[in-house]
Amino acid sequence: MSMRIAVVALWAEDVEAAVRFYRDVIGLRSVKQRRKRPHFEAGGVQIVLLEGRPVAAQNSVPENFPLVAFAVDDLEQALERLHEHGVRLPWGVGHDAHSRWAMFYDPAGNLIELLQEKYEPEEWEDELQHRHLDTKTPRHKDTKNKS
Question: Is 81 exposed, middle or buried (0-12, 13-18, 19+ CB in 10 A)?
Answer without folding.
Answer: middle
